[in-house]
Amino acid sequence: MSGAGLLARLQRGEVVIGDGAWGTLLIAEAGLPPGAPPERVILDAPEIVGAIARRYLEAGAEILTTDTFGGTPLRLAAHGLAEHCEEINRRAVELVREAAATRALVSGSVGPTGTLLAPLGPARPAEVEAAFERQIAALAAAGADLLCVETMIDLAEALLAVQAAKRVAPAVPVVATMTFEPTPRGVFTVMGVTPARAAAALAEAGAEVVGANCGNGIEGMVAVVAELTRHAAVPVAVRPNAGLPQLVDGALVWPENPAFFAAHAPALVAAGARLLGGCCGTTPAHIGALRAVLAA
Amino acid sequence: MDLLTRIANEVRAGEPDAVRALAAEALAAGVAPAEVLRGGLIAGMTVVGDAFRLREIFLPDVLLAARAMQSGLEVLRPQLAAGGVPTAGRVVLGTVRGDLHDIGKNLVGILLGGAGFDVIDLGVDVPPERFVDSAVEHGAAVIGISALLTTTMVGMREVVALVRERGLADRIKVIVGGAPLTEAFAREIGADGYAYDAASAVGRVKQLVGAA
Q1: B182 and B96, same structural domain?
Q2: B189 and B104 in one domain?
Q3: Most buried of A46, A66, B113, B132, CB within 10 angstroms?
Q4: B64: chain A residues, CB-CB within 8 Å
């Protein structure tokens, strides 16, 4: 399957399953210290990255995400890693590709820069767009099959990322997802973006798939997906997290276990989701359970 | 409409030039600077905080209103300093060690400042010792800690532990917040307070100051 092949399947209405969380797995299983950038692991412990990719592959994921959520030079700079931007993003694709071979697609993760655009914050749009271009060019040159622009709250920043992708890697499909919260007045991002506006604007900018990720558990995502589906002219993706973490015996534990996650997944498909995976707190077991319930 | 109400409305609308001009007009008309602060700027930000809590408005509106309030404060500051205005209390704020995300923390600082608190912002990636040392140095009654990442939130526990270890728990209260946090997590680490979002943080800090 290629990026184009994936799009064709989604457009035919097929359901495709991706992977789950990376950052929280790296903390739980690789001893990544709290606050350390997950991208560091790509340089310091590449074998761990490969091992996680293989576990998601074995669980049935057809898409494996790179560990590059914070891989823009703007965000890497906060950890003194900006000059390693190309190396980190290239290695991240290579490590996942080695694990996936031809059995899964490699999706290059592109997260927010972590700063607010002017006039609300200090970031100039040109600077943010250049940061996205640098990361995406590195991901694409290393052979990413698709790009996933994710966890966006500001539509302007999300659009800069999609536009950057279309400029430096026009042949690579883009999945663009934002983080919404249900409020008494409906579903919005904290910046006030509705699913309707996000779906229309992201697709208009060239995203081939639009959707939602993270949030506060899988149940709340059903309404979000329904809203997105109503307004999207392109396939809808969803990657819920496993709820908000609790502290149990000094360790973070996510409340929504694989069985719970899988039990609620059919409602997401019924609401219109075609590309499914998991965000913070989900594991290969969540993806395995998802696969089992959706194959049934 | 009286001047103070107009100031509050322009804060709400996020119009820094109008707020600056009206604040100067009020001072020239003989309104006490503390009254312009309370009845104009703080009144406006209170409406903003309430509207944000109900998501009638969103983060951009709050940030623009905060900027408008700041422009009014600049007009008042020389005279306020001379008059010595009592504050609602002093709060030390920062993001937990390892967390560089300060949008939420800044918003809490803005809304606390807007509610009349004296806010000492320690910035991002703040070690536990610095939270506690700063609170002692400045005589703050409350330490506010923010985390955006599930990968950093556990570090909040160390601040609570340090406050207790130094025997300060009766006069320094710790409140925590941030997207991945829950009331249960705050309770588990022994924090004195939890806020679901920046707007509700103001009410919780008021309660904690009353309790301290």
Answers
A1: yes
A2: yes
A3: A66
A4: 119-120
Residues B118 and B195 grouped into a single domain: yes
CA B59 to chain centre: 15
Smallest CA-to-CA distance from B7 within B69, B79, B74 is with: B69
- Main-chain phi, psi angles of A277, to 5 degrees: -160, -165
- Out of A114, A119, A188, the one facing B101 most closely (by C-beta) is A114
Q: Residue B59: give its domain's CATH number.
A: 1.10.1240.10
Mean pLDDT of the region A128-153:
98
Statement to judge: residues B108 and B48 lie in one domain: no
Q: How far is A33 from chain B (nearest CA, A)?
A: 8
Note whether B79 and B94 are same-domain residues: no
Measured distance CA(A137)–CA(A170) in Å, rounded: 10
Size of interface A-B (CB pairs under 8 A): 87
Q: Which of B83, B99, B132 is the last residue of a domain?
A: B83
State the DSSP code for B46: H
Nearest chain B residue to A21 by CA distance is B150
User: What is the pLDDT, as a whole number, of residue A252?
Assistant: 83
Q: What is the ipTM of this complex?
A: 0.85
pLDDT of B212 higher than 70: no
8 Å CB contact of B180 and A280: yes
* Band of residue B87 on the pLDDT scale cut at 50, 70, 90: confident
- Provide the number of structural domains found in chain B: 2
- Per-residue pLDDT at A247 exceeds 90: no
Q: Are B48 and B65 in contact (CB under 8 A)?
A: yes
The verdict on a CB contact (< 8 Å) between B185 and A38 is no
Shared domain for B94 and B158, answered yes or no, is yes
Q: Over 80: is that where the pLDDT of A166 sits?
A: yes
Tell me what pLDDT residue B79 has: 82
> What is the spatial distance between Cα A94 and Cα B36, in angstroms, rounded to a whole number?
61
**pLDDT of the residue at A148:** 98
Mean pLDDT of A207-229: 95
User: B61, B83, B105: which is the final residue of a domain?
Assistant: B83
- Contact (Cβ atoms closer than 8 angstroms) between residue A20 and residue A287: yes
* Per-residue pLDDT, B102: 85
Per CATH, the homologous superfamily of domain A3-295 is: Homocysteine-binding-like domain (3.20.20.330)
Domain boundaries, position B141: 90-211
Give the C-alpha separation, B134 to B93, whole Å.
10
Listed residue (A81, A82, A72, A86) closest to A115, CA to CA: A72
Q: Is B185 exposed, middle or buried (0-12, 13-18, 19+ CB in 10 A)?
A: buried
